[in-house]
Amino acid sequence: MHTVWKGAISFGLVHVPVKMFAAVEDRDIAMRMIHRECGGPIAYVRTCRNCGKEVANDEIAKGYEYEKGRFVLFEKEELDALAEETSKTIRILDFVDMREIDPIYFQRSYYLAPDQAGAGAYSLLLEAMKRTGRIGIANVAIRSKGSLAAVRFIGNCLVLETIAWPDEVRPVSQVPGLPEQTIVNERELELATLLIDHLTGPFEPEKYRDEYRERLMEAIQAKIAGEEVHVAPERERTNIIDLMAALQASLEAAGAAKAGPAPLAEKPPETKKAKAAGTGASPTDGQATGPAGAAAGAEGSGKAAKGSGRRAAAAKKEPVP
User: Fold this and answer.
1) What would the pLDDT profile of 67-88 be if each residue is shown by its tens digit?
2) How many angstroms separate the Cα of 295 from the Cα of each of 220, 284, 292?
3) The model's pTM
4) Which of 33, 70, 227, 295 has a Cα-to-Cα distance from 187 of 20 to 30 A?
5) CB burial class (10 A; 0-12, 13-18, 19+) of residue 136?
6) Which domains does the chain have, with CATH numbers?
7) Tens of pLDDT, residues 199-252
8) Residue 231, helix vs strand vs coil
9) Which H or E run includes 201?
10) Among 56, 313, 9, CA closest to 160
11) How far from 122 is each of 44, 283, 305, CA to CA, in Å?
């Protein structure tokens, strides 16, 4: 792994020397821009819009446009000096419960490893976070860009997740077209819940594949070998407008008929008590994170929904008042 940052975690008066590594690698297939007429790659030349001259890297500064066509300039050293306080330190400001952070805040993930003589302090912070179930909220600057971050753990490894600043996350209230009140058909809701139950399982990331990347690589290899690339016709859409029919077809396609009685059997409406019992999700521990924590919550909700279904089935045997 390539080290992307070196510094220390600071909490209280304790400093933990660490090295940072990218936790996620980009596996996208790089494509170049090519001149179709002669087959040569396209080059991008930096030119000044004012004088039209080609500009070398050492002649370029950064500027902020405060009025149309008017800029204040900054040299690299000036920007580095502004980030100096957080450029070498992951300064933990608070410790919080991971479940309080909505996954929408998470951006990039980095592994943190102990550096040189920092193994003892690293282990101390790691075990303290495991025991308390808390994660750290910190300030850090990576590549001269200041960021808010969460420091958590996976097994025996500390992990830093950069998270968005509060004013960077758009409020849900700005999303157009959201219903003010959700009104659904109870039978459709039962079928949708049954479909979710049938498709619920443990999160196993290795079973998911980037099918587009696989098809693209096959096409690249075929073109290199001089073969003609055949494009498969687009799948015909079923265009089912009836929600009940769409849900029933989805259940049949998923093999739900093998799971037990026919899904269209009538069921009495659940009582408020049964509904309340069915919504509980078991809390995740301090190691659950962002999307993973959401997955765990979804799994817990699925199990609770199954339990609710069993209670509703049992209620059928009792006389309805």
Assistant:
1) 998 999 998 888 878 776 667 8
2) 35, 10, 5
3) 0.68
4) 295
5) buried
6) 3-25+80-168 (2.40.290.10), 183-203+267-321 (no CATH)
7) 888 989 899 898 888 888 888 898 888 887 777 677 666 665 677 788 788 888
8) coil
9) none
10) 9
11) 45, 27, 41
